[in-house]
Structures are given as C-alpha cells and as structure tokens.
Amino acid sequence: MPRPDIFNLEEFAETNQIKDIYGSAVVCLSADNEILHTFKNPATLSSFYAITLMVNGWQEYMVNSLLLKLKKHDLFISLPYTNYVFKGCSAEESSIHLLVDKNYFEDLISQNEQLAGYTPMEIFSTFPVLHLGETKAAEFYDVFRNIQKTIVLPHLYKTEMIKYQLSICLLMMVELISGLEINTHDLKHKDNILKIFLHQASRHFRKERQLQYYADLLNISPTYLSRTIKELTGNTVLGYLSNFLLNEICIQLKTTDKTISEIAFDLSFSDQSALTNFFRSRVGMTPLAYRKHHINSDQ
Description:
This protein is an alpha+beta fold. The protein contains 13 helices and eleven strands. It has helices at 9-15, 33-38, 102-111, 120-124, 134-152, 158-178, 184-204, 211-218, 222-233, 237-255, 260-266, 272-283, 287-298, and strands at 6-7, 21-22, 26-32, 45-46, 48-56, 58-63, 66-71, 74-78, 84-89, 94-101, 129-131. It is elongated, with a radius of gyration of 23 Å. It starts with 5 loop residues before the first strand and ends with a helix. The relative contact order is 0.08.
C-alpha cells in the first residue's frame, strides 16, 4: 500500500492562494461556508497543527474514519499527520483557523519557560475537541485575531509579537487541560505594554533613548517596563532602541547623501564620533565603509 503524500503549511497556503502567511510557519484566517468549500488539500496528510475555533454554525470532519461535528464555541485541534477530511458545514458557519508549522510550534514550546515540563503531546492529547464557554471562546478569539492582525501588518518586530501571541494561546490550552488558572488579564496587560512600547519606540527613538522616558509614557516604573519587555521577548528596552537606531542609520547611509555629521545630528548623537563608534561596534565597519560597500554592490 503506497505511503500517503504529506504536505506542509507553505504548500497548503500556496495551493489555496493564502497570502497572509508569516514565513512558512504561521497562518491565521477567518472562514465562512463559501471559503471552507473552496479549500483544497494538495495531499492526504498535513505536517502542521490546525486549530479551529467555531464562532457560529457547525462543521463536520471525518477524522481517522470517525465523523466529528463542531458547534459554536468548540475548539478543534488537528495534529500533524492526522487523516482528516472536511465533510460540510451550515450556511451560517463562521470560524477562525490558526495553522502552525509542526517544528515551529514545538520549538516554541521547548523554549518557553512558562511551558516548562509540558510536551506537545501533553498539551494536545486532550483534544481534538473542547467545548468552551462563551467567555473562554471570546478570549481565544481575541488571541487569534491579534495573531491575524500581526501577520498582516508590517512591523519591525513581527517575529517577537507572533511568538508571544502563540505563547499566550499555548498557555490558555495548558489552562484548559491542567485546570491551572492563568491570569489572562495580566498576559493581556503585558501584551499591551509591549505593543505600546514598540509603537512609541519606533516614533521617538531618534530623539529619546532613555528607559525612564518610555516608562513615563506608559505610566509604569522603569523596572517594571524593563522586566516586562525582557520576559516577553528576551530582548531589552535598550536592545530594541539600539536596533531601531542601527536600522535607521543603515537606511540613511544607503538612501541619502547626508554626511555622517548630518545623520548624527538627525539622530541626536553628541557628535560624528559617537555615531561612528556606535555603528562600528555593531556592524564591524565605519559608516563610510558601509556606504561605499553598498554603493559598489548596487553598481
């Protein structure tokens, strides 16, 4: 008997003309009756996790030869290499789907200190279907929509945002299977701090690069801001500000004729030497050498 073909997330997205995909690792999309009936599977088995949250109506799947019917507020997880086939849905069906590459999801679990002690099988073995209450379904929906928005919108720190949002999703699943209460309000509060900080830092880094300035904008202590950013992303406030700054210097060197002194003034360095030292310590060459290298490489 021939081995069934296996397709990955990138192949699924390409076959179904899904453009809103993060790398080849994450897709989050809303679906209705019409969209579900147009989906095509390029092979028999998928190598990614598929998490479906029912918003309205019903869906039916054949999962390993068993008929499964999903209703409003159900959370359905299809594990990698599971044989499942969409059978139909109601006219008013509405759902949101989170698709995550197997290795990406499992690496995220292994690297997350808050998920220490849990294996993918422990997290997902209770599934494929959990019947959620209205409140819990709304919490999952909010997380899915945040992931969906992050994938679509351009953002310098999209990687960190998506990883953090997926971690929230995983923690909420652990809460469901373990009975442990996770303070989702606190998670959302910290998520908002991260979003606001990144937004404000991207606007003000040219003039303001002090921890206290951003803590004051958020009306929190510098210690709490520093700890929250480090906890959620592994990076520091100064690290983010330095990355914004370095990226801007590179852009100006490649796309403008400004002198190094002019760029230093624009970006609030004390003088040209301060900018040069900052740049060389991170890139390994002077700003002028960097500009010359890119001019030559473009010719």
